[in-house]
Each structure stands twice: as structure tokens, then as C-alpha cells.
Amino acid sequence: MDGEPIQYGPEFDDLVAELLRGGADVVAVVPEIDGLECAGTTTLARAMCADPRVAEHFSGGVFWYEIGSDGLIRSVGQDIPGEEPGDVLVVFDGLHRHPTRPSAFELAPMARTLLTVRSAAGLPSGAEIIRMPLPERGWPLLSTLSSALGTAQPHLADPGDAAERASAVRRVLAEGLAGLGTPGSVERLLELGVFAADGHVPARMIQLLWRRTADLSEVEAELTLAGLRALGLLRTSFHDDVLVVPEPVMAYLAETLGAEGALRAGRALVEALVEHPWEWLTEAERTYLAVHLPRLMAGIGGPVADLVCGAGWIVTKLGTHSTAYLERDLELAGTPLANRLRRTLAQNAAMLAEAREGSQKTLVATLAGRLHPVSPVAGELRELLRESGHAWLECLWEPPDLPAESLRRSWRAGPDGVEVMAAGPGLLVTGGSEGKVTLWNLDGTIRTEFQAHQDGVDALAVAPDGDWLVTASESVAVVWGLDGTPMARIDHETSLIQKVAVAPDGAWLVTATLEGVVAWRPDGERLWQAEMETGYPANLSIGAAGAWVAVNGPKGSGVQIITWGGTLRGALGLGVDGSAAHPRHDLLVIKDEDGPLRMLRPNGTPAGTIPAGDLYEAITIAPDGTWVAGPGRGGLVVQPLDGRPPSTRAAGHVQHVAIGPDGTWLAGADYDGVIKVWAREDGLPRPDEHLRRRPLWSIAVGSRGDLIATAGPDGVTLWDGEGSDPRTLLEGTACNSVAISPDETWLAATGYDGDLRVVTMSGVMTLMVPAHHRAHAVAISPDGDWIATVGNDDAVVIWRGNGVQVARLSCPDDGWRQLAIAPDGSWVACGGREQVRLWDTATWELRSTLPGADALAVAPDGRWLATGATDGVVRLWDPVGLELAEFEAPGGALNGLAAGPFGSWLAAATAGGLVHVWDVEEEAIIASIHLDQSLTECAWTPGGTRLFGVGGAGLYGFKLHLRG
């Protein structure tokens, strides 16, 4: 970026001043004609960055990133330093495919950003947009080519017509290249059409190709490239070893080269690459091959499957690219193994994207777990981990949270998350906390994104034909075209809009506020208004024929029915937490929390009841009216309306649900903004011969390591040391906590009903303490002489095995509590949201108080107590309350901690679905793995090589492999 700035005239100074003014974090240079390629925006951005005023202002440096047509971000120079906001300018040049934008902005969140972008659609809220007018001479690319090739410049009747632009480029190139009089150079130029999938081509790739096809030396190849540069047919990238061919030119080259020429050139290039040592390749060349080698091999009929189904290729590709690139490779292969891998990657795309942000060994361990059923590839991945020399976690069996076959894809919505969601024909629409609306294709790619509101999106609905949508934020609703063009604005002034709904024929819509319901035409014309008090949050739906609108009233008043015109027909007089109008019959389906689904006619006449205890209150009804879906126990619950049992899609904590208009797919979004799309068909359930796939809440491991006890809705289950041969005790009693006696002859469990039960391993109950204590956690002393329980009555209670209460220890704190006992039994600790309390067991007096924690673990030798809380920080304390160490656990709040043997390492399970193992002495994570659902508790075997965990999906088993 050295040299004199290009002189654009007085307007150039205005552009530089705007860049330096700092009014917006993002400045975008956009063509006057939306979508116009090769409009000169890059040249302008280069000139601005070369201006001495810019270099002086941005003392931290100017950093240039190029975005290729393959979507990859290519950087020049060193990484962006951690300067103060505004000290650094980062340029993203060539943004024209939206999926690259989030990753681009995340590279420099504190910097001032300059973009060259083809369209202003989807730019960050508040971005300053600089429109670059079309020069008098017309489209810069066309005028440059015409002048260099000595042809007349075609007139563009409509420069905004992409087809007309492409046709003009073809005419200029066909005429100009024919008149060059250098057929050898033209032939070499046409061979560049083999690189058509990417306009950014490493120069040495071209040299290798031409050496093979025309025996050109390096000097001869460089001279040929220099001549082509002079004609405007290509230019040098900011990467010295990368050349950029304008997309319209590249399209012409590929078309003219044809299938036979592409086969010949592709074979020559692949043969040249095979002979060229991989270690001699530059970073740009390796990046290019990582994206395009499978396509080149497929073009010549090469062994694509052997390449792309190998663990080495998969790991290399996922380390730097999203799963979409690898899925494309596997689609080219088309073998059964490739198809299975592609489906697995699509299903786990959101998780793998998170794993890629960490270390490579974590990514590989996570991938090996996800591919556990695909034994050939999983075995290769485990071998790579063994050869790495690092510690790692291996899944001992298929993780119970592996997705059902009906899951099509997962992806993460982005930093704004998902506040509301709706489905349209072949698309999913989400609204985020920062007012952005995104239209997603069902493969997770972005169709359109635009800034709808300054504040978060509160409500959203899509017209039945998918031609428009309506969003609401605060007191304003806006009707939008699918390209983000506003069609109408609806202002409720001071009334906050809770919900919006569109009539079945798409001719009108309604908005619901706390003061009533208003109907509108899509052009914003008010049709009618019904003033009334509505409930919060509102449930709003329109009857199948559009004759009535249903909205819930204040708590306990039931559903109110409003006829067309705004007349309150009456209230059904039933408590309701969720409701939906039947799409084909004159019925309303309502759901109470923990209650059944009830179908009612608008006059209140019952039309049927369906048990639906697994569903929570929010429901969405399918287009054919035969089933509903909504958040529920274990994830997204699908409930048929013919009385058949429900099915659950394992999605963790689902917050929003949408059903496709054709009823063939449904989607759910969780609190972290992860979106999942399922096919409607349930598909075959995953085989579970060991019965590990069921909700479990607590785990304990026996002193010898060959006995595991888990607690869950079905009782207490005993497992062998391999997580097999399950045997159930207390069957039919939901248990939320379990502990095994030191001699492994009995166990203690707290029931969901609050009772404490002591049971022998043969299933004989020897003690039951009634539920007046409401115990929900249990621990057993190291000598087995007493049992500690904690409940919601603000106390830890100590019991003898005969049920005699020894002590009652006050712990005035609310929230779920954890218990830990010193290995020598000298103290007992209880953790709560506000504080952790330690009592001396000799006197039962309070020994020390620590900050609140949701997870506790004590070293086997008793020298430290670990606490973990919602802030994701692990703290180590000595028994008298002195803090020894503090370290952060990536992945959010801590659900469970487990101390390994000798206190040498510590395992943690986070709410974000990560499992970490720390070396306590080094205070460093030595191994991690991502899961699709979080664990609630974890426990080591005494030898410390195996770690077991439980969660909503079931029982997990891991083996810790140490380095070397």
C-alpha cells in the first residue's frame, strides 16, 4: 500500500475525511449500481489507504484482507494487533457473498473497518455507506478491456443487468483476443478457465500448468502473465503470489475452454501437482488446493473419494474451513461412505464450528466422537490423536446425544442469536436481539439479511405464499419484501407489540398489544381494532377461514375470540398458556403447562383432548393439522393429534419452533442461537442395546471403579465399569441424586419427591426418610457412618443409617445445592448460588464461607476444594478457605466438577456442552471435547483414566489418553 495516492478530485478528500471522522465503526464503499462487479471499489479503497492522512490517523496500522469468490478470507501481513478502538483500520476487500461477513467482522471487532462490497444489503447496523458512481466512460471493466484489446466499447442499455454485462464482456473478449495475433498467449489464457471456481489463483499454479501444457519456463510464464496483466485480463492481488481474474472474464474463459479443454487442462494440472512436493507449496497454494483439489480431481475422473474420505483431509479441511466446503467435497465423491460423512457433518455443523475455534486436538477428538459409528474414519482420527503426542479424550461408546436420522442440519445464527423465528416456503426467518432479520435457506446458507429495527425483533410472521413478512419491535411493525425492502410501516405509538400473525389467505395481518388487537392490510391500511386487555406473553392466531382471531386474556381469564371486524365474541373461560388455530377446521388447540392438549370450537364446545405432558405451553401446529410441535422435556417435542405417543428431537433446551408450510420439515432454535432443521419423518431410532440413551441426572462411581450408579426419571440404574449390563433399583421412582457407600454394599438416593432412600445393591430398601426435608442432593461419609442431604428448606441434614438425625446445618441460600465431603470426613461442604459453606464434622460448627458455586469437587487427598459457578470460573481453595488458584472454563457456566486421583487433574462439564480436563499443577487444560448436550454431573474411576458423565441425553463414557 505504498506509493502516491490516486487523484480522484475534490470528492476524494471528502471520502478520506469520512473515513477519519469515526462516526461509524464500519464504512462501506458500494457501487452505485447494486451488485455491480469490477466497479472500481478496490481501486478507490487502495487509494484511500495509501493516503498519508490515513496512515497518520491509524497509528496501529492498516490491514488488508481479500475475500475470494470462494468465500475465503486472505490476509496480508501480520495478525491484527490488540490496539485501542479506532487505532487500527482493517479493510475487507471483495465482500459479495454474505456467509463470509460474520467471520470477517469477528477478525477485527475493535477496529475501524472499511469494506468494498457489491451490495449494501445486510451490512451492519449503523454502517456508513459510500456510493461509488459509475464513471462517464461506463462500466470500468468493460472500458478497460475495450481499450486494451482495441475494440469498440459496447453500449450497455442497462448496466444493472448482469446478463447484458456478461454478454458485452464476451463480445469484447471474442473480438479482441482474435485480433491479438498471439495465439499461444490466447491458448494459455483460455487454460485459466480450469480455475473458474475461484478468481484468486496462485501464480505458481498457473506456471505449473503452463509448464505441463506448453513447456513454458518460469520466465516465459511470467512474461505471458505480464502481457495479460497489461490487457486488464488479470491483476496482482495484495498477495504477491496470487493473481485475480475478474469474474466475467473467468466465466468467459471457462465457457470457451469447454468440457474437453477443461479435462485436458485439469489432468495436466493434477499431474503437475502430484510431481510437486507438498512441502514446497506456499500457504496460498495450500489454501487453494484445500478448496479446489477435489473439484479438479473430479473433473478428470480421479479418485475423489480416496482423498476426501480420509481422516487427514477431513481434519485439514475442517481446521480452516466450515463444514460446507467439506460437504461439497464429499458430494463430489458420492460414495455411500462419503454420503454418510456428509450427513454427519451437516447434522453437527454448529458444534464443529465451535470446536474449530479451539485447539486442533479438541476438534479432532470431537469429530472422532461424532463419527464414532463410522468406524473406519473414526479409527483414523483416533490414530491421528495418538500420534499427536498430546493428551486427549476418547469416547468409549457412541455418545448418547448423536442426532436422529431425521436431523438435516444445524448451524449457529450469529452473535445476535434468535429472538423470534418463523417458516416460509423453503426458508426459515429469524429475528435477533440487535434488530437484524435473516432469511435462511434450509442448508444453513443466508438468502437475505437486513437491519429491520434498531432494537431487538419482538415478533415475526411470514405470509403464506412467502412473498412478504412482517416484523415488530417495541411499538412499530414493518412489512418487508423478501429482499429487505420496506413495504409498509405500522406504528402503535406507545403500545408495545407482542405478537403478529398473518391471515391464511395473506390478505391481512393482525398485531397484538397489551391494549388489544388491530387488523391491517399489508400496505399498512388499518382495517379494524378490538380494544381489550390481553395476556402476557400473548398467544395470537387466526382461524382457518379468517373469520376469527384468538388471543389469550389476562392470566386465568382464558382465550378471547374476536370476530372479523373487531367484535369480542366471548372468552372460552379456560386457563391457557399456549394456543394455535387449526389450519383446516374451525377449531382452536390450546395447551396448559403440564396439561393435555384440548381442541375447542370458537363457541367453547369441546372437540377432543390429547395427553401431552411432554410439551410445555408454547405450541405450533402443522399445516395439515395432524400434529403440533413445541419446546418440551428433552428438546423439541412432536405430538400427533390422533393420540399416538409423542416423539422428541434431541435438541437440548429449545426456545423457538417453526414448521415448514408444506409440513415436511420443522426447525428449533435454542438459547445459544443454534438452529436445527429436521425432516418431519421420525426415521428409525438409533440402536441402543446398552440402554444408555435416556435422561439421567446424577452419577456416582464405586471405590473399585467397576460399579457405576446413575439416577434419573426411571429410578437408580447400576452399570458395570464399561457402562453396560444395566440393572434398575427403585424402579418407577424419579431420583435426582445418588451416592455409593464406601464398601459398595448399599447406596443412598434422593427422590424427585424429596424422600431419602437407602437401598442395598440387591434392591432391598433399608431406610426411607419422608419428604418433609425435600432432599435433592446426597453424599455419604468416607467411613459410611453418616449421610448428608440438602434440600430446599435451607439446611444440610446429617443422618445415621437408621434414619436418626445427627445434625441440622443452616445454609440460608436459595437454588440448587451441591455436597462434598472431605476424604477423611473432617468437613462437609454445601454449595449454593450465593455462597459455599464448610462445616467441621467433629463439632458441626461452620468452618469457612466461600463465594457461591453450582459445582463442587474435592481432591482425593483433601488438600483442595474446587468450586465452579455460572461465570465459568473454577477456583481452588484450601480447607480453611484460602484461594489457591483460579482458571476459566471455556463453554460457559459449570454444571459439574470431578477430581481425578491424587488431585492431579480436574474434570469440568460446562453448560455449553464442553468437557475439560485440567492439569491442576499447571493450571492448564490438557484435553477437551464438545458434546451436543451438556452434562449435569461427571465422575472419575479411581484409576483416573476413565471419566463418566450423565445428562439429558444419557450416559457418556470417556477415556483420558495422556501425552507420549
Tell me what the structure shows:
This protein has a 6-stranded mixed beta sheet with strand order 3-2-4-5-1-6, sandwiched between helices. A 4-stranded antiparallel beta sheet has the order 10-65-64-63. Strands 11-38-37-36 form a 4-stranded antiparallel beta sheet. By secondary structure, the chain is an alpha+beta fold. Among the domains are: 10-132, Rossmann fold (3-Layer(aba) Sandwich), CATH 3.40.50.300; 137-179, no CATH class; 183-281, Arc Repressor Mutant, subunit A, CATH 1.10.10; 303-405, no CATH class. The longest helix has 29 residues, at 247-275. The protein contains 18 helices and 65 strands.
Q: Short summary of the structure?
A:
This protein has 964 residues and is an alpha+beta fold.
Question: What are the salient characteristics of this protein?
Answer:
Arc Repressor Mutant, subunit A; four-stranded antiparallel β-sheet; alpha+beta; 65 strands; 18 helices; 964 residues; Rossmann fold; six-stranded mixed β-sheet; globular
Largest sheet: 6 strands, mixed
> How many helices?
18
Low-confidence stretches: 1-7, 97-102
Number of distinct beta strands:
65
- Order of strands, main sheet, comes to 3-2-4-5-1-6
Compile the SSE list and pairings.
Elements: H1 10-21, E1 26-31, H2 41-50, H3 52-57, E2 61-67, E3 73-75, E4 88-95, H4 101-107, E5 112-117, E6 128-132, H5 140-149, H6 162-178, H7 183-191, E7 200-202, H8 203-214, H9 218-230, E8 235-236, E9 242-244, H10 247-275, H11 283-299, H12 304-308, H13 311-320, H14 323-333, H15 336-347, H16 349-356, H17 360-370, H18 375-388, E10 392-395, E11 407-412, E12 420-424, E13 427-431, E14 436-441, E15 446-451, E16 459-462, E17 468-473, E18 476-481, E19 486-491, E20 497-502, E21 509-513, E22 516-520, E23 526-531, E24 540-542, E25 548-552, E26 559-563, E27 568-571, E28 578-581, E29 588-591, E30 597-600, E31 606-610, E32 620-621, E33 627-632, E34 635-640, E35 647-650, E36 654-659, E37 665-670, E38 674-679, E39 698-701, E40 707-712, E41 715-720, E42 727-729, E43 735-740, E44 746-751, E45 756-760, E46 765-769, E47 775-780, E48 786-791, E49 795-800, E50 805-810, E51 818-821, E52 827-831, E53 835-840, E54 845-851, E55 855-858, E56 865-868, E57 873-877, E58 883-888, E59 894-899, E60 905-910, E61 914-919, E62 924-930, ...
Parallel strand pairs: 1-5, 1-6, 2-4, 4-5
Antiparallel strand pairs: 2-3, 7-9, 8-9, 10-65, 11-38, 12-13, 13-14, 14-15, 16-17, 17-18, 18-19, 20-21, 21-22, 22-23, 24-25, 25-26, 26-27, 28-29, 29-30, 30-31, 32-33, 33-34, 34-35, 36-37, 37-38, 39-40, 40-41, 41-42, 43-44, 44-45, 45-46, 47-48, 48-49, 49-50, 51-52, 52-53, 53-54, 55-56, 56-57, 57-58, ...
Helix pairs in contact: 5-6, 6-10, 8-10, 10-11, 11-14, 14-15, 17-18
